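SAMPLE LOG
Freezer: B-3
Tube label: C17
Construct: single chain, 445 aa
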Amino acid sequence: MFDSLNERLEGAFSLLKGQHKITEINVAQSVKEIRRALVAADVNFKIAKEFTESIKEKALGQKNVLKSVKPGELMVKIVRDELVELMGSETAEFDVKGKPAVVLVAGLQGSGKTTFSAKLANYLKSKKKMSPLLVACDVYRPAAIDQLGVLGDQINVPVYKELENKNPVEIANNAIVHANTHHHDVIIVDTAGRLSVDEDMMNEIEALKKSLLPQETLFVVDSMTGQDAVNTAKVFNDRIDFNGVVLTKLDGDTRGGAALSIKYTVGKPIKFVSSGEKMDTLDVFHPERMAQRILGMGDIVSFVEKAQEQFDEAEAKKLEKKIKKNKFDFDDFLSQLNQIRKMGDLKSLMSMIPGMSKMTKNLDIDDKAFSKVESIIHSMTPEERGNPDLLNMSRKKRIAGGCGRSVHEVNMFIKQFHQMKKMMHMMSKGKGMQNMMKGMQNLKG
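STRUCTURE (predicted):
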């Protein structure tokens, strides 16, 4: 995500490395490269120009004040602050109060609208403990209704649909009645998309908003389309005055233009960002955290939050006791792998850790990264998983045959497991584990 923009901005900052002070010449050179980086990321030239003029003014304003700060570090700080301001400064509120609350989802066809609707339902159900109802109002594309039904089944959220009715306004209003009867506290209305903006589409979405009076109207934007997405958002906002924007497909080749330009152009905040097809890959948009990720600083707060969502305190205490007694086994290891998987896409997680984004950029990291290890463990008997010391050569040969790996690979994994087990035991004897957990809590705070 934003790899190209990050590389170009680093190139701009590198012009100030080795410089002992801020000058008009070195600031001008750096600002010029920053502007080029933004334009290459498909940010509107006018926005890029205003953005860099503000950076230049602030950098030159500091040249005689912060003499102890290196010019490169100062420029990074100023750019980070300006990026935060450009993307909205603060995290936007998502208001779903109502009986039931109505969320209207709009956007062009192919923007990820239907997938987002299901992800939002899953988010409200799992994190906000609400009872959502998905409503299929795309009456023109039967596949959209089928898709919403399949996604609803995946997350165990009901989908309201009327296959014979071709009036989206009627369907949505009938869904509200259904929601009241079946005690749903929020309904998410997935509307029809088009390949391009047209008058019929605008009239329909206007009629839906006027009739439903939704608490939240969200416009879904494919972040890979850059400035075109921003222009489309402006057209929609002029007609339906939506509350916020959703950026989808952030795991793709995202240049960053939409994320950086949309708040400035439309005047509406980004509320959610989405990546991948998994139903749990929806995040609240935090301008400050996104700015840090764009600059390659990572996003350790989001990483800790994801970890704590999967953190079971009772299990952790039980595990800590086993580690202290040096009784950590393959079942415990497998349990920890499963918790990591639940946190989301591995490459995305790695990018949240400061410095890791560069190290993993060219590595092929995906959700299958642990499959080899898991296949080895699953080929063991329950007794072997619970007692690693049982694994002699004949057992290793049987395990290798069962998982389709070589004895060498099995040996390597067992050796690494014992090294890790030893390290964890040594940490538990001191204050290592407690300090690690306290550190996670402090970072979140």
